[in-house]
Amino acid sequence: MRARKIADGIHWVGVIDPDRRLFEEITPLPDGTSYNSYLVRGKDKTVLIDTVEPEFKSILFERIDDAGGKDIDYIVSNHAEQDHSGSLPAALERFPRAKVLCTPKGRNMLLDLLPLDPERIETVEDGQTLDLGGRTLEFIHAPWVHWPETMFTYLREEGILFSCDLFGSHLATNDLFVTDRCRLLESAKRYYAEVMMPFSGPVRRNMEKIQDRTINIIAPSHGPLHDDPGFILDTYRDWAGEEPKNLVVVPYVSMHGSTKSMVTRFIESLVCRGVRVEFFNLAETDTGRLSMALVDAATVAFGSPNILNGMHPKVVYAAYLVNALRPKARFVSMIGSYGWGAKMEDQLHGLLKGLNIEMLDTVLTRGAPSEQDFTSLDFLAQTIADRHAAVCADWKKS
């Protein structure tokens, strides 16, 4: 297992995992992933930045050997989650003089998660530096990107930002650096939506902390490295920004066709009013694609039939996901059909209680929709178009 050279004395020593299809037992991984670890050697000290999933520790150690890492003085733990820290116990056993460097919160979390000797864990303050001999590491605390203990490590002389999960992508590729922007953009957006979107405020604040530094390379903990960092930085500013796009996301389920006919009319009515729509049949949708659409949406409109006096379970899950991911959407609504019970609107209110979002009128019909129901859908579409015209920077009414 060969190390990959980033610059003289700086190597990628991580692992590519193309076969993994689920992360944390919830996140789909259509393109696999990688666990990036980096070896940085100065004249006096050698540092390993993050480790890998413990099942791949032998690959990590082979790559470290190939990069000339016979002795390691420090192991930087930018993030305590086990896909980054899981091989720490084995690494400390293999390199007996190494000390772990992390934030104060990171120390407590590492000790909670892993069997580690507390005496071998040292904490670093925000802005603290470490001289490796001709190379200087600066530690930048970045809380809530996406755990409370996270930090970045910045190599000053080369302008390399080891950003841990920020700017990452679940993308198993043998390319060390980004070579296909279109493929990277889709993978990175999925990653942002599923991991970073609930923390868009901290993302913006922590990006401000690095904006005055010279950054030539961004080296995240998942996916290829960015040797054109301006591209991913600008993209993240857009994703994490507070202004939504002129987009309605419609997650729906239809059991007997009534809700589907309402969704079809509603989408057509929105499009005729110059509103973009992305719709997802939840009976077969990859939730990652739904999450990606939520990054830009100004409105989320759920479509559901009534089942057992409530929303369809798949729509309940979608609403729970929206509440958890905390997109920048400003408005929400519901359309659907019921037979003998109509408490779906109250249920939706309860599921979205964590969001600061305006609840628009709903269109719920008993049984098959009538012409009056279709007229109500047109009215809802017009209401959404009017709201978007007021809040969406990219609004273009056709």
Annotation, overall tally of beta strands = 24
Strand order of the largest sheet: 1-2-7-8-9-10-11
Secondary structural class? alpha/beta
**What is the global morphology?**
elongated
Give me the Rg, rounded: 24 Å
What fraction strand? 15-25%
Give the rounded overall mean pLDDT: 96
User: CA-to-CA gap between the ends?
Assistant: 56 Å
**Biggest sheet record:** 7 strands, mixed
Which parts are unreliable, with pLDDT below 50 for 5 consecutive residues or more? none
Number of alpha- plus pi-helical segments = 12
What does this structure look like?
- With 398 residues, the protein is of the alpha/beta class.
- 34% of the residues lie in helices and 23% in strands.
- The chain is built from 12 helices and 24 strands.
- The protein has helices at residues 57-66, 82-85, 88-94, 104-113, 181-196, 200-210, 229-240, 258-272, 287-294, 313-325, 344-351, 371-391; strands spanning 4-7, 10-12, 15-17, 22-23, 27-28, 33-35, 38-41, 46-49, 74-76, 99-102, 121-123, 129-131, 136-141, 151-155, 160-164, 217-220, 247-252, 276-281, 299-303, 306-307, 310-311, 331-338, 358-359, 363-366.
- It has a 7-stranded mixed sheet with strand order 1-2-7-8-9-10-11. Strands 17, 18, 19, 22, 23 and 24 form a 6-stranded parallel sheet that branches.
- Strand 10 (99-102), helix 4 (104-113) and strand 11 (121-123) form a beta-alpha-beta unit.
- Helix 5 (181-196) crosses helix 9 and helix 8 crosses helix 12.
- The N and C termini lie far apart (56 Å).
- The relative contact order is 0.10.
- The model has no long low-confidence stretch (mean pLDDT 96).
